[in-house]
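REQUEST ID: PR-0412
SUBMITTED BY: lab tech R.K.
PRIORITY: routine
TASK: structure prediction, single protein chain
INPUT:
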Amino acid sequence: MSITRRDFLNGVAITIAAGLTPLDLAKAAGNARAVIGEDYYPPQLTGLRGNHPGSFEMAHAIGRDHGKFSTDHLPIEEEYDLVIVGGGLSGLAAASFWHDLMGKESKVLVLDNHDDFGGHAKRNEFNAGGKKIIGYGGSEAFQSPTRNFSPVVNGLMSKVGVSVARMKQSFEVNFYPDLNLSRGVFFDKKNFGETKIVGGDPGRAVADDIPPDRLNGRSLEAFINDFPLSESDRKAILDLYINPQDYLKGMSVDEKTEWMDTHSYRDFLVEKVGLSKMAIMYFQQRTNDFFAIGIEGVSCGDARTCALPGMDKMGLPPLDEESLADLEEPYVYHLPDGNAGLARLIVRHLVPEALPGNTMEDSITSRLNYQKLDNKENSTRIRLSSIVINAANTDDGVVVTYVNDGKAHRVKGRKAIMAGYNMMIPYLVPETPEEQKADLRLNVKAPLVYTNVVVKNWHAFTKLGIHEFYSPAAPYSRVKLDYPVSMGSYHHPQNPDEPMCLHMVYVPTYPGSKMSAREQFRQGRAYLLGTTFDAHEKMIREQLQEMLGQTGFDHERDITAITVNRWAHGYAYYASALFDDMDKMPEIIKRARKPIGRIAIANSDSDWDAYAHTAIDQAWRAVNELKAMG
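STATUS: complete
OUTPUT:
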């Protein structure tokens, strides 16, 4: 059985585009959804989403194939006070901040290459048996807001109607524990010789939404001794948890800290602990979700923030405040559509008539009217499916050229903000100084996939006694029942008979390749962009069938929808002493985000930190840089 797919071209678009000239490509990239009608509603599209076909081919023609566009002859069609390139959280926040500082009547244009706003904060909607199911296709929650949110971020939240206190109240942390469900591990037959589900994981997790006293975990001995590994491997893993040693004995604290920062967790397990390849495989994908890379690309220091075992008896300094917050503060600041809910609330603030209602709660089920986003009377206009190909300073402003529905257009702003990916800025703004171009290109974003699968019911999970799976070696390292959030008139599934959204995380990694993080990210990105929906669907169905088949689950009968949110350019690059000179990083970051004439830079990349609050803080910095120019 194959899911019906509409409005996407699979991965074939890359192959088709390869032989076209840039202007031919502009026409090929045009799609009917550039004309927004009454039925235009991207959240309900299934198939390949995220960096969807039509959103990236132009960027590749410019950045990878060095395509040149001759557009100087085109007229300036519109003029604005500010043109923002990128309609993600940073771009939308920048529009709001600009109005705060420059006046409500100041004219702003936001251009985004995707068919929906929000950047990585994307909303997925489904209709299953007459019930609306809302899922998150990207940026999923606020990370430790009581510690991480600046006064600027808190001010924006208050202005658009977000209450983190009410978000926390809406998250039913005991819902799955009260059903006697735990976390479990899926050992696949291909890598472990047999298919085995082991429930009752007692381990703590980074950014955990389950209270530590409600994990429904078994003893470590009982849990680990159920692994389909040899007796010696099980004993070695158990000892790592309950009988850790000082594996860096003889080193000073400073020497230990340096070793931890410059060696991967895999190095630690191999060189210092002496685990076998099979034992190490159990830990291989523990870091995939948080860092978008396996344990060979995560330092031992960073592995501590993921609560990975073996480092408790080494006399190391305590974790820093931010890492402790990630481990200890509940990960419960989540809207049903993730941070897409924040994006929608910012849009409501900028274009009130686009989203009915006036509270955080009523925004969840309100249908956004995309026809209202680009009306002439708006002080902020949001123009989707508009792929910027050039931004250039002039004597009195910035001229921005973009392609929409296969046609090139030019607009002018007194100022401009680049709020997309750092790595694209050197190509879109050719006048960028060479050293700054090199700095910007260092932020190679990490690829990952957030897949949402709607199933008719979730009896398979209750039969297994598990609400979330970790997979050490199967493609999807994380498979979980959706967060139990009820807000306003929206209620999460209350019993196993109801349809449920399964959230799945896949990260293309290359264990044992000896590639740096940047090299893995580039290769993983190419793989994702060249992989068809059919291939993704096959991988999803096969894994779910093997995981859940013993309960009577039938993927052909029980799956009703699949949305693959492909983020070929996902998390902002996270600097690490494994691959970077950390002494040079502060200056690199500072140089990379320096304004280029009247063009400022705002995105999470500009602080090398893949969080919503970072994107907002960087928007505030960029807007203030432009204001200071006068």
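NOTES: The first helix runs from residue 12 to 17.
REVIEWED BY: pending
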